Amino acid sequence: MMERMDYVRAILGDAYAAAAQHEEAEVFMPSNIALVKYWGKRPGVLNLPLVSSLSLTLKGYGTKTRLSLSHEDSMLLNGKTLSQGDPAYKKAMDFLDMFRARGECYRIETENNIPTAAGVASSASGFAALTSAIIKLKGWDVPLKAQSMLARLGSGSAARSFWDGMVLWHKGTRDDGMDCYAEPVTHSVHDLCLSVLVLDASEKSVSSRDAMQASLATSPMAPEWPQRQAAHLDAALKAADFATLGQIVEDNAVLMHAVIQSAVPAMSFDTAETKKWKDNVQRWRTEGMPVYFTQDAGAQIKLLYPSAHRADIEEKINAAGVEYFTVAA
Ligand code: DP6
User: Fold this and answer.
1) Is the pTM for the entire model greater than 0.70?
2) What residues are in contact with ligand 1 under a 6 Å CB criterion?
3) Domains defined along the chain, listed by start
4) Any idea of the CA torsion for 152, 22, 76, 84, to the nearest 10 degrees?
């Protein structure tokens, strides 16, 4: 705890002094989907990633959080009161402990407009929103880069949710985490669409955090993952056309899932529907449609394509009767 507190103090610096606390604060923060994945952590308590990553923000899709001072701690998630033993309650309160004044208690009311824990990256928007809410409640003036560094302590992917468009999260090399932050990037490939297909909205059996730790600890592919992932990131940032970028995005997701599937014991997030959609994407490409997929620690498939093809792709998704949403970036 001490090490994390020192880190938080170092980031907040003078902001502490300028506090004008409010009774409550309400914020909305979007989620994001990694085009080149964060998978693996460095040792320590600062949630430092093994690899840098690149994401696309899901503008308008994420978490609304209302944080208020209260006589006791409580948390409401999507209208349901969580028990103190609930992992989501513990993670949220553990996060707020880093900012809590002596004797202060909080009521967290949080709502996702995307399925929670279904691999649609709700921990990213959840911790970005909690970070933003506590800063607003405290009346602190904190630059977005510093907010991304704080949000990372709750969930790594949350570090990338503070800007629209493409965001690069630098892993940094320092043990004190001071060079580990996210920032927006301008990319030469524009007018992208990402459709998130909700193939399975049930809670997943293994969290991304557990799958990440277990797969990197046991997969025979783990030693080569950081280098190959870094090469993907470098190529993705330099990609000058959509097809090059799309192919890297798909290759990176396939590689991450190969690490997961080769864990001992083996793990897989795929359902029959997931496999069917991957086949669909690859078949549509042979038919001339520029579309690529990515997949996180869940069954969902996300389709990446140029916005000029939005109507065609959405027609195919609608024909399959699958729930989805599309963001343009
Ligand atoms: C597959 O951010 O959920 O979505 O830092 O342990 O909370 P923690 O992990 P989390 O992991 C996200 C993994 C991923 C890839 C990505 O978003 O880059």
Assistant:
1) yes
2) 34, 37-39, 47, 53, 121, 123, 155-157, 208-209, 296-297
3) 4-184 (3.30.230.10), 192-328 (3.30.70.890)
4) 70
